[in-house]
């Protein structure tokens, strides 16, 4: 759905989550398309992203930049996958960068890194 000229809302499904979907956004810039947040890394989200891009006449290869707002897996999950396909630049806060890996890291080591980040920040 185009919100205003050049800014599109992309709804990506969240399987087994009462929210149902995560909102991501696609922005047209003078140097290409920027995706804000990347959605959960599963087949259903990947298919939904491809379908909504196709509705706009685009493919993942047209994404030149990915901005991750924060390190919840429904926001960064497909960032590495999209980057591998498109060669897009990946942007996120430098502190959070150390907590994710573009090779789709998930599990114990990421949980340990997040716990460390929470302790550093007094949580």
Characterization of this structure:
The chain has 123 residues and is of the alpha/beta class. The protein has one domain (2-94): Metallo-beta-lactamase, Chain A. Helices cover 34% and strands 26% of the residues. It is built from five helices and six strands. A six-stranded mixed β-sheet has the order 1-2-3-4-5-6. The longest helix has 13 residues, at 43-55. The model has no long low-confidence stretch (mean pLDDT 86).
Strand-residue fraction?
25-35%
Summarize the main sheet.
Answer: 6 strands, mixed
Low-confidence stretches: none
- Rg is 15 Å
* Helical content class: 25-40%
Features:
single chain; about 120 residues; alpha/beta; Metallo-beta-lactamase, Chain A; 6-stranded mixed sheet; about 25% strand
